[in-house]
Amino acid sequence: MKSFLLIIIGGALLASTACNNGNANSATAAGSNAQQDTANFTTAVWTDSLQNFGTVEKGKQVKIVFHVKNTGDKPLFITSANPSCGCTVADYTKSAIPSGETGEVTANFDSNHGAAGKIHKSIAVVSNTNPARTTLVFEGQVEAAKQ
């Protein structure tokens, strides 16, 4: 009798878990559909998508700020900003950018990574625009540290 009861309880738990996993997949699919909803697309203009920070000594940190203006009639949402390498940490405006307002993507470049010389780095930004991906670029010269 006890083993029969344990089997029933175990089966109920297994069924409950399976049902919850199905709901999680449905929620993920709904989120993907919302990101592809063209009714919520807007337009944006990057005022400085290519920047040159000049020359820095190896070991220095460089902060680069890119600005975007929402030129559409819907709120602009930046959903990700992914740097091309580990030498850069990117941050971005996380809240909705209303029509006519500006937001930003910030790149913090650590010149300790890599060799001295000319550098050319990029950040892939995804937002609710068409096309969804914009590539921001910064470049400059890293000189060997003076001794």
TrEMBL record:
Keywords, comma-separated and alphabetical: Signal
Signal found in the keyword field: yes
Keyword set includes Cytoplasm: no
Signal peptide coordinates: 1-20
Pfam families on file: DUF1573
Protein name stated in the entry: DUF1573 domain-containing protein
Organism: Ilyomonas limi
